[in-house]
Amino acid sequence: MLLQQYQDNIATLRQKIQEAEAIVVGGAAGMSAAAGYNWYQDDANFRKYFNTFAQEYGIDSIFGGFYYKFRTEEERWAYLATLINFVAEVPIGQPYKDLYKILQDKNYYILTTNQDTQFLQVFPEEKVSAIQGNWTYLQCGRPCHDGIYPYAEQAKELCAHIEGTRIPSSLVPKCPKCGGHMELWVRSFVFLEGDKYRSEHSKYREFLRENQNKKVLFLELGVGQMTPMFIKEPFWNMTYNWQDAYYITINPNDALLPRELEDKGLAIHEDIAQVIHDLVSDR
């Protein structure tokens, strides 16, 4: 019975993708977790890249290190440089590659709260809106001006100068305008919602405007309940209000389908990587 239900879900997913005139993908942390990159766990990837920090400070996850109160800027930037280098260096996860095969000939757009650049490494930038920033960019910590700066190459060089869990004081990044401290351009209390941020939202809104009267599939991948206001709730509202919209959520833990969408939606409580792989394999 469970196998039959799974096969039925795959068949419905395939049908809705084929029928859709536009597909809006919402991707969050669960998508990267399905690719083997879990920001909340003490796993092999964490130990490979961050073991020195785990042993020195008792940090038990990537996000744990990001929010850790380091004693000095030299220690903090040793960790952040390692984090940026991790994001830039790890291979593209298979679920992202499989999703590209599914979408490449479709009219689609991707909205993501992920900051790990996996979507951007696979899909054209004009097809992706990363609305919570990007781990490989820096901004002024104040911020004193509307500017973000790519930092992947500099972070790699910085990693070569880490001694234990510190970098030399002379290498701590400084704002090119005010000389103050820098921060990663990701959602925080000082997150810069400037031109780049507005551009990400503008691209997404334009796609919605162009396609709202078409047969639209909202495909939600790995969106949990931590920040439902960015993807989950807007997808629900648009599916409910748009006549020809349909909603599918894939998530082993948080695939939620409101009662109001029972006739316009499907919740697949399965591993995202497996579902997407099976979808590609059966094409």
UniProtKB/TrEMBL annotation:
Keywords: NAD, Transferase. InterPro entries: DHS-like_NAD/FAD-binding_dom, Sirtuin_cat_small_dom_sf, Ssirtuin_cat_dom. SUPFAM superfamilies: DHS-like NAD/FAD-binding domain. PROSITE patterns: SIRTUIN. Residues 3-283 form the Deacetylase sirtuin-type domain. The keyword Membrane does not apply. It comes from the Bacteria. The keyword Transferase applies. This is Deacetylase SIR2. It comes from Metabacillus rhizolycopersici.
